[in-house]
Write a structure and sequence with these properties.
heterodimer; A: 153 residues; mainly alpha; two-stranded antiparallel ribbon; 7% strand; B: 80 residues; Ribosomal Protein L30, Chain: A; three-stranded antiparallel beta sheet; 3 helices
């Protein structure tokens, strides 16, 4: 089983974990990407949303479990075929929530290009934006550097 | 004759292009070229019809795409 270890900068990433934990708590009972399900009957819609929510919560736990004792002592996190997909999905859920709740003051274009003057941002927005970029980096790492045995088609 | 249903993916400003391509490959079995074509359609036109067929399968695709947090909707030909 292929496993990829990545060394992160503890002083940079550790403060972002507070944001990630807050996001996880906010997303406990709501979907990161609310979906239009008009064509489904009400009972089916409820079951559909519950199943999406259950998956979303499992994915978040996978991402949070990256930051274990090894991370706090060595700054190392590890991706493998078991956790890669849940973590990629969790990154998306957190990024959607960040945009919706904490980065409303930034334009979509600015978020997409990343061309933002960090010094001009208030601290909570700066931290949220750092988190947004960090999660995108994790996604790119998994998507680009792990082979098809991990993200199988 | 049974209605045909479309699976439509809508644009969002958050998901990375590489992520959308990966999801299309994984969920819908697209090759790289087809996945990129639909990703660009979503990005530039705001939506892309990624699958057409019977309702049950369309629902399964929509659910799987939503598990990956893409905004995916089901549309019937009757609605046209």
């Amino acid at each position: 089983m292929k496993r990829v270890e990545v060394k992160l900068s503890l002083p940079v990433v550790a403060p972002l974990l507070d944001v990630i934990r807050e996001l996880s708590s906010e997303l406990n009972k709501s979907l990161a990407a609310p979906q239009a399900l008009h064509d489904l009957d009400q009972d089916f819609r409820g079951a559909w949303i519950n199943e999406l929510l259950e998956g979303q919560n499992q994915d978040q736990r996978a991402l949070l479990s990256l930051f274990d004792a090894q991370f706090f002592t060595e700054g190392v996190v590890a991706f493998d075929e078991v956790n890669a997909e849940p973590i990629v999905r969790a990154c998306t859920a957190f990024r959607l929530q960040l945009r919706e709740r904490r980065l409303k003051s930034l334009s979509d274009e600015a978020l997409e290009t990343g061309e933002i003057d960090m010094t001009g941002l208030e601290e909570p927005v700066r931290k949220a934006f750092m988190c947004y970029l960090f999660l995108a980096t994790v996604q790119e790492l998994i998507i680009q550097h792990l082979d098809s045995s991990i993200i199988g088609s | 004759m049974e209605n045909s249903w479309r699976v439509v993916v809508l644009n969002d400003p958050v998901n990375l292009m590489s992520y959308v391509v990966m999801v299309f490959k994984k969920v819908l079995g697209f090759d790289e070229t087809k996945a990129r074509k639909h990703m660009l359609e979503v990005h530039e036109l705001g939506r892309s019809v990624v699958w057409v067929g019977v309702r049950e399968t369309a629902e399964a695709h929509v659910f799987a795409l939503q598990q990956w947090h893409l905004t995916a909707v089901l549309e019937s030909d009757e609605a046209r």
